[in-house]
Specification:
The protein is mostly helical and 89 residues long. It has one domain (3-88). The protein contains 3 helices and no strands. The chain has helices at residues 3-42, 47-82, 84-88. It is elongated and about 65 Å long. It starts with a helix and ends with a helix.
Length: 89
């Protein structure tokens, strides 16, 4: 294994991690922004008001995007397992 191969291998894993996590992070950001605007307008500063909607949005996003995430991770894992003989050389 060359250093370029290891760097490319790590780069692919990091990119996949970012791509798979983006839907949940985006939903959390959007809901958090909406709740923050609501809190600023109404002057309500309740901690659970900001936490509960974000966690629910992330869980709903996880339910919705789980098949896509599983397909991406399974494809990547299959590619790694199929190429194990190439990695050993």
């Amino acid at each position: 294994m060359t250093p370029e191969f290891v760097v490319n291998f790590a780069k692919e894993a990091i990119i996949l991690t970012i791509i798979v996590s983006m839907p949940m992070l985006g939903l959390g950001l959007i809901v958090g922004l909406a709740v923050s605007i609501f809190q600023a307008v109404t002057s309500i500063q309740e901690m659970t008001l900001s936490f509960i909607p974000k966690i629910l949005a992330v869980f709903l996003g996880l339910l919705f995007f789980a098949p896509w995430m599983l397909e991406k991770l399974t494809t990547y894992t299959q590619k790694i397992i199929i190429n194990i003989p190439m990695y050993i050389r």
